[in-house]
């Protein structure tokens, strides 16, 4: 009897890339990761990271990734061009473009490299929170399709009810993992760095037009440390430093249950009040 292969995890389907002409790779958006406008920015960032991972010239593992969302990504095929602009002894610098029908929708830069055993220390303190199992699962509004791919357990700063009134700060802290559960790797960690809904929703107590303009992820864990996490929950926390003139920043941290700081991220978000 011929065994029927199990379908890929929805996340893996969303970041699958195949070879295209002129050295490019081609992907396709999936309805599972639809956002309010276009696909979830985290899955777009993950696809860009995957393009470097699959490149035959790639050296080492991700150190950082910066994604600039130049315009909306339409449903359908997209092409990614990845070019190593310089390779040093321990790090490698990449430029990437995501295009559709020859029009640039997203640009990115990435640094990959090899890590060495050195003295290390973490100056940030992991938030003191109850265990994931004691926090009830919640989700984002039904119309945000991509959120259904994550199990979210908000410790503080859950998405407010519409017209809930202003909140005194913008901090959200939650336990989160892929749903269905999936072992953590660098693309999944990249997507998780963008899992926080816009901070302005919390501060203003209502939904409004908002979208990420630029996202940077710094990877503090190596592949072995990610393997240790398995498919367990990751603890994420995010807040804004300033809302001003139609933009706000967001600083986020992602921690393993064992207290390992896995990644930090910073992003700039457009909003319309």
TrEMBL record:
<dbReference type="InterPro" id="IPR042171">
    <property type="entry name" value="Acyl-CoA_hotdog"/>
</dbReference>
<feature type="domain" description="Acyl-CoA thioesterase-like C-terminal">
    <location>
        <begin position="136"/>
        <end position="270"/>
    </location>
</feature>
<dbReference type="InterPro" id="IPR029069">
    <property type="entry name" value="HotDog_dom_sf"/>
</dbReference>
<dbReference type="InterPro" id="IPR049449">
    <property type="entry name" value="TesB_ACOT8-like_N"/>
</dbReference>
<dbReference type="InterPro" id="IPR049450">
    <property type="entry name" value="ACOT8-like_C"/>
</dbReference>
<dbReference type="Pfam" id="PF13622">
    <property type="entry name" value="4HBT_3"/>
</dbReference>
<feature type="domain" description="Acyl-CoA thioesterase-like N-terminal HotDog">
    <location>
        <begin position="31"/>
        <end position="113"/>
    </location>
</feature>
<dbReference type="InterPro" id="IPR052389">
    <property type="entry name" value="Sec_Metab_Biosynth-Assoc"/>
</dbReference>
<dbReference type="Pfam" id="PF20789">
    <property type="entry name" value="4HBT_3C"/>
</dbReference>
<protein>
    <submittedName>
        <fullName>Thioesterase family protein</fullName>
    </submittedName>
</protein>
């Amino acid at each position: 009897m011929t065994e029927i292969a199990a379908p890929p995890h929805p996340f893996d389907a969303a970041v699958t890339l195949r070879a295209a002409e002129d050295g490019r790779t081609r992907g396709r958006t999936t309805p599972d990761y639809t956002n309010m406008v276009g696909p979830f920015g985290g899955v777009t960032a993950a696809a860009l990271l995957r393009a470097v991972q699959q490149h035959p010239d790639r050296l080492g593992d991700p150190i950082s990734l910066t994604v600039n969302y130049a315009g909306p990504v339409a449903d359908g095929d997209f092409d990614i061009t990845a070019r190593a602009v310089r390779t040093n002894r321990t790090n490698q610098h990449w430029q990437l473009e995501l295009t559709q029908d020859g029009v640039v929708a997203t640009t990115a830069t990435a640094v990959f490299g090899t890590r060495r055993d050195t003295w290390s220390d973490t100056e940030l303190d992991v938030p003191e929170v109850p265990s994931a199992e004691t926090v009830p699962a919640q989700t984002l509004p039904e119309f945000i399709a991509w959120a259904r791919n994550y199990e979210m357990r908000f410790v503080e700063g859950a998405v407010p009810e519409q017209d809930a009134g202003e909140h005194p700060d913008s901090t959200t802290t939650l336990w989160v993992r892929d749903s269905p559960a999936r072992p953590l790797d660098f693309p999944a960690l990249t997507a998780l760095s963008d899992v926080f809904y816009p901070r302005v929703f919390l501060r203003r107590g209502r939904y409004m037009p908002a979208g990420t303009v630029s996202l940077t992820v710094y990877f503090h864990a190596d592949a072995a440390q990610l393997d240790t996490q398995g498919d367990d929950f990751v603890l994420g926390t995010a807040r804004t430093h300033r809302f001003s003139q139609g933009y706000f920043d967001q600083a986020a941290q992602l921690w393993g249950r064992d207290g390992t700081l896995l990644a930090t991220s910073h992003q700039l978000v457009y909003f319309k009040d």
